[in-house]
Backbone:
């Protein structure tokens, strides 16, 4: 029983990680690098959007991603009784 | 009250620097005495009971080195958009740390990174390869820190660089040797407070001065205060193109290189031993995740301010010196000229400073490292703010140097002496060995600080490539790929680190040719700084291929993998 638990806990963890890393990739490599030129045609205040993602936005998203993961995993630990 | 204000402004920069540096150094020494290490567990992982907040602050200080504090904004202010590789690269790695490494390594619960490699890959060879990589990465990195200490001392306290390095060595020696990780952790908490205050105060002053907005991150995208209604960044783009530089918000590196460098820095960050060990010091797995988040938040405060400072400083500098008569330059210009970090050569003898993109006509060379240090002077901020920056720069350099020295000393005393050379050594003997190797490490670091080999500056940035090419794949596969065996891991680490070293020697140091090979010869157009990405991929490919053809790791090792994947109760899960 517990082995099955451990497996499904791990699978859910991997799912969270992959989703969060997809966002991680999209804001930094996507918006900040690959799509920078297209996004730079949009201006918000004094910032060109691609430039903003590269020098500001992606970093804010990184912080949020970690805290989202902390929350998700704390809930998951509780659900599976792995909470310390 | 008026008297006091008068008094404050009467004190000159140097006196202020002595006061602030004196106060902060006394604080660090006081903390070191209070938090002496009594056991090897104290020495290596601060007893393992550090709170997530304290660990987050310590990690942030550990991480933000002289390079982040002193050099980064300067580099960005000359590189414009391209500077984003450092901003994203040095922060994005924490997402990888929090999601892919820190919780599992904490659950594994040993003292060092080679510990993990050695146990997970059930092999002394793997451990020795890991020790080699850890020492290589940490020594290249620490030499740069000691140099940073020397530069700050020489400029602000007007002692020579070598005396500065020696003073810095003595301070680090004192608290690293006495307190080990425990002393380092709590001094780093104090150092974070000093360095972030020191970085933010001038940034806020300048942001208000230039845009009227007290938050530098917003001032960065705001209109200038001069009544023109122009946005700061538009103005800067305009000035840059006018003088023949690349447009500030566009940059000049190729997209593939920007991509590769960012990736190498991110993965390298996640693979740096002195950062990873910080997560061994917290109590629980969930604390490891949380403190990674706190660390990144605290780092991002500085990292989102730095590009704003870069843009302010660049605009200010161009407006202050460009096409101005040399006879009228402000005082700071002369002071920095004396250190040879600013050089002016009046090529056309018109008495004006022409600062332009065309190298044959450009008359002014400004060292990137001085932008942050000179910025408060350029913006005519009060003397105490200028002195504060010196104290902050020292806090940044010392905290990182201490963390690196601990990695070096624990690699020697724990991984080499205890685990390989003399396993019978007593706890007390190991603690003495740890302290002695810390002394040895400080001396070597100091030597490199005083006699920097010509290639140190170049190599520091590459420490990330080395970490990316060696540790990152070995650790990730060790956690996420249960079948990963020692043959694969050892071969992968060796291929990774040597391909990185060879590329670096050929394309960064030019050791194999008479002249440094031209950019056009780079593989796939990727610079040595970005090559860590390729070397990391090679490591992954070699590791997995060799693992496929050799035998699976023993059951006991596969059980370790099951064990570290789960925060608690994992033992039950495996046994029943």
Residues:
């Amino acid at each position: 029983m517990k082995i099955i638990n451990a497996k499904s806990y791990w699978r859910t963890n991997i799912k969270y990680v992959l989703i969060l890393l997809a966002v991680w990739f999209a804001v930094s490599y996507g918006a900040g690098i690959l799509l920078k030129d297209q996004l730079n045609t949009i201006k918000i205040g004094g910032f060109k959007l691609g430039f903003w993602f590269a020098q500001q936005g992606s970093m804010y998203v990184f912080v949020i991603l970690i805290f989202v993961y902390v929350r998700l995993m704390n809930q998951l630990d509780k659900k599976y009784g792995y909470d310390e | 009250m008026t008297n006091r204000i008068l008094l404050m402004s009467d004190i000159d920069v140097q006196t202020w620097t002595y006061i602030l540096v004196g106060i902060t150094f006394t604080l660090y020494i006081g903390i070191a005495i209070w938090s002496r290490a009594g056991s090897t567990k104290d020495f290596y992982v601060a007893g393992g009971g550090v709170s997530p907040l304290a660990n987050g602050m310590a990690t942030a200080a550990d991480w933000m080195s002289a390079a982040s504090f002193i050099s980064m904004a300067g580099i960005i202010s000359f590189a414009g958009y391209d500077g984003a590789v450092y901003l994203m690269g040095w922060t994005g790695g924490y997402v990888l740390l929090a999601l892919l490494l820190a919780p599992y390594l904490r659950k594994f619960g040993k003292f060092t990174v080679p510990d993990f490699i050695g146990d997970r890959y059930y092999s002394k060879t793997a451990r020795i390869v890991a020790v080699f990589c850890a020492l290589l990465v940490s020594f290249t990195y620490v030499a740069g820190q000691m140099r940073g200490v020397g530069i700050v001392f020489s400029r602000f306290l007007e002692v020579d660089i070598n005396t500065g390095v020696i003073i810095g060595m003595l301070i680090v020696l004192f608290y690293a040797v006495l307190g080990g990780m425990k002393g380092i952790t709590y001094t780093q908490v104090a150092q974070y407070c000093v360095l972030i205050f020191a970085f933010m105060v001038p940034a806020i002053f300048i942001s208000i001065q230039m845009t009227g907005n007290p938050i530098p991150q917003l001032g960065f995208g705001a209109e200038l205060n001069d009544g023109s209604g122009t946005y700061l960044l538009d103005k800067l783009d305009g000035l840059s193109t006018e003088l023949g530089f690349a447009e500030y918000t566009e940059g000049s590196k190729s997209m593939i290189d920007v991509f590769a460098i960012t990736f190498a820095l991110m993965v390298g960050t996640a693979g740096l031993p002195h950062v990873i060990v910080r997560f061994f010091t917290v109590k629980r797995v969930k604390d490891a995740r949380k403190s990674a988040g706190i660390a990144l938040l605290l780092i991002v405060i500085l990292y989102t301010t730095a590009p704003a400072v870069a843009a302010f400083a660049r605009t200010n500098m161009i407006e202050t010196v460009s096409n101005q008569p040399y006879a009228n330059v402000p005082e700071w210009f002369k002071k920095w000229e004396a250190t040879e970090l600013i050089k002016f050569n009046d090529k056309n003898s018109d008495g004006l400073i022409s600062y332009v993109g065309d190298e044959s006509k450009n008359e002014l060379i400004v060292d990137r490292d001085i932008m942050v240090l000179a910025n408060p002077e350029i913006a005519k901020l009060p003397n105490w703010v200028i002195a504060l920056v010196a104290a902050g720069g020292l806090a940044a350099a010392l905290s990182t140097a201490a963390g690196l020295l601990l990695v070096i000393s624990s690699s020697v005393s724990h991984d080499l002496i205890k685990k390989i050379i003399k396993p019978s050594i007593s706890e007390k003997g190991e603690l003495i060995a740890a302290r002695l190797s810390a002394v040895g490490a400080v001396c070597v670091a100091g030597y490199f600080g005083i006699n920097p080999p010509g290639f140190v500056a170049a190599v520091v940035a590459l420490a990330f490539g080395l970490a990316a090419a060696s540790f990152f794949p070995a650790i990730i596969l060790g956690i996420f790929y249960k079948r990963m065996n020692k043959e694969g891991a050892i071969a992968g680490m060796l291929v990774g680190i040597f391909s990185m070293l060879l590329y670096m020697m050929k394309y960064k140091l030019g050791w194999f040719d008479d002249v440094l090979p031209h950019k056009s010869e780079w593989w796939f157009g990727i610079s040595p700084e970005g090559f860590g990405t390729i070397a990391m991929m090679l490591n992954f490919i070699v590791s997995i291929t060799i693992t496929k053809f050799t035998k699976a790791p023993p059951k006991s090792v596969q059980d370790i993998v099951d064990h570290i994947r789960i925060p608690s109760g994992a033992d039950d899960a495996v046994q029943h």
About this structure: The CA atoms of residues 78 and 84 of chain A lie 9 Å apart. The longest helix of chain A spans residues 2-34.
